Amino acid sequence: MSRPLVIVESPAKAKTIAKLLGKDYSVAASVGHIADLPKSGLQVNVEADFTANYEVTERGAKVIKELKAAMKDAPVVYLATDEDREGEAISYHLVQYLKPKVPVKRMVFHEITRKAIEEAVRDTRDIDQKLVDAAEARRVLDRLFGYTLSPILWRKVNRGLSAGRVQSPAIRLVVEREQERMDFVVVDYWDLAAVTATTPSFKAVLSTLNGMRVAAGRDFDSKGVAKDGVAVVTKERAEELTAALTGSDLAVRSVEEKPYRKGPKAPFITSSLQQEAGNKLRLSAGEVMRIAQGLYESGYISYMRTDNVGLSDDAIAAVRDEIRSSYGAEQLPNEPRTYKSKVKNAQEAHEAIRPTLPLRSPDSVKAELNATELNVYRLIWQRTLASQMNDSLGTTVTVKLGAEARDTHKTDCEFAASGTTITFAGYRAVYEEIDEDKSDDDA
Q1: What is the 3-state secondary structure of the chain?
Q2: Which of 37, 158, 243, 333 is the most exposed place for a label (fewest CB within 10 A)?
């Protein structure tokens, strides 16, 4: 029986999509690229408009043979590689080397669910030549840089190292940063903290000396020179003040209350997922992407290589329904939240990273995932829900305490302490960032 052939990139993805499409379709994998520039020589003709000399790889030749056999009776071929530059280039090369005599349709989706796959089959397009050209330009740049710079690394550093489109500027950044480090002038600065005898006690940090703000790290330049208008506390001065203040009474000089409001961060993009999983789960960037790739290919999350912080209308509606049922309508804004990417030249073909639809809670999938996969999935789940929840509200109280040091200068010392009481959890009911008040959104 002739069946349409769907070609994807990975065997794991092929297995998942085959289950979703059923017996009416045949699904096979290209196992990544089937063609590349040969390893020997530049393989880029700089005199002929930088024409790249692609050829089928050894593994690619075997894959092509298998795909031609699978395509023999197929009435149509669907190219379902990833919707990015590399995926588009893979589809382009598949057409070049398979030379199908039946209709070829480009099929794209952002999540591996039955609804998304069925919609992708109905709504196909042609291969995007601009994406193909972009992928080839990146590969050509890799070769032009790497072919000339890698031998220098072999001579100066170690054999087997490579330089290219990414490594070369990265190395330059590392070298420049190292030069800054070598030129940096180290200086010491100190601060003081007073622990009150109240019940409960709290710690207040020295903020001013005779009305002048105490210097912090941000107040010094790379030469170790402090900016004007700050008081630098040396070790000797800190010891002198400590002796002069020990046992002194601290008088409350002011108590200031301010309303606290903090909104949730945007859903994850690739970089913010890597950073947050690194902070919370102690995973390397490579480990995060490997786990996210597996979650995507198994149908748990949307495509994990994205700069887009936005969610589709369907996803927002599903997330809002989940918030309403699990956390209550009071945690839900009147209107959906929207986010705009702060990444320059963002690639926004895909949504932000989110759980696939219909939404499945971490508890409902914990039997299907190992511990690390579940932790990454839970992080994505929590961040996605939090992004559509109400602000966290509370009150921040700042107390300023003062005393006069019993030193020769009778220095006026002022200490400050602050704390926040949360009166309405909002998005914090589901998600808590690390070092929340200091971290900035990566999107």
Answers
A1: CCCCEEEECCHHHHHHHHHHHHHHCEEEECCCCCEECCCCCCCEECCCCCEECCEECHHHHHHHHHHHHHHCCCCCEEECCCCCHHHHHHHHHHHHHHCCCCCEEECCCCCCCHHHHHHHHHCCECCCHHHHHHHHHHHHHHHHHHHHHHHHHHHHCCCCCCCCCCHHHHHHHHHHHHHHHHHCCCCCCCCCEEECCCCCCCEEEEEEECCEEECCHHHECCCCCECCCEECCCHHHHHHHHHHHCCCCCEEEEEEEEEEEECCCCCECHHHHHHHHHHHHCCCHHHHHHHHHHHHHCCCECCCCCCCCCCCHHHHHHHHHHHHHHHCHHHCCCCCCCCCCCCCCCCCCCCCECECCCCCCHHHHCCCCCHHHHHHHHHHHHHHHHCCCCCEEEEEEEEEEEEECCCCCCCEEEEEEEEEEEEECHHHHCCCCCCCCCCCCCC
A2: 158
pTM: 0.80
pLDDT at residue 103, as a whole number: 96
State the pLDDT at residue 151.
83
Tens of pLDDT, residues 371-408: 999 999 999 999 999 999 999 999 999 999 999 998 88
| Residues noted as catalytic | 303
